[in-house]
Amino acid sequence: MSQLPDAAQNRKVDHAIEPLIYRRWSPRALSGEGISEEEMLTLFEAARWAPSTYNEQEWHFLYARRDTPQWPAFFGLLMKDNQTWCENAAMLVVILAHKVFAKNGKPNPVHLFDCGSAFENLALQGAAMGLVVHGMAGFDFERARSELRVPDDHDIAAMFAVGRPGDPEELPEKLRQMEVPSDRRPVHESIQEGAFRKH
Length: 199
What we know:
It is a single chain. By secondary structure, this protein is of the alpha+beta class. It has a single domain (19-165), classed as NADH Oxidase. It is 30% helix and 15% strand. It contains seven helices and four strands, in the order ααβααβαβαβα. The chain has helices at 19-23, 37-48, 71-75, 80-86, 111-128, 141-147, 173-177; strands at 59-65, 91-98, 132-136, 154-163. Helix 2 crosses helix 5 (111-128). The protein is globular. The mean pLDDT is 94.
């Protein structure tokens, strides 16, 4: 199995945090190898423990593992640029977010926020396991709703690919140039005390 480049070599934190947080990144080079049932369930177990309002656990994951009857439908939802590298993924997943509270059917204003927390748990677990977890918006949301029979009381939040690290040299040139851990803007550019004001 290929080793992911160590993001710690490309990233410098300004304040001490858990290394797993800044070592997580989203490469596209995948090996084409599958993942085991236990590895898959471990990822979803991590998502299970995310915080959510009133313990709603709004997330619902629809998945397809490679070389299964479900794979073509999920793969076909991807934009062409994402198909280029996702063809070597072990699993494709669509994240759904329940839009209303289960207890009373009223709108839940933080349903997408909570699903993001579940995805981050899963992504960090994947990083700890040496797997690639790469979130995407580059797919057909309308077709996903129709073809995966997503009910109206759920939003389609995102899609992500999971796999084992592969060789970046096998990516198309344009993607190969992007295959480095990205930096982040300084924290002071993302926070303000009190009311919002333009920087």
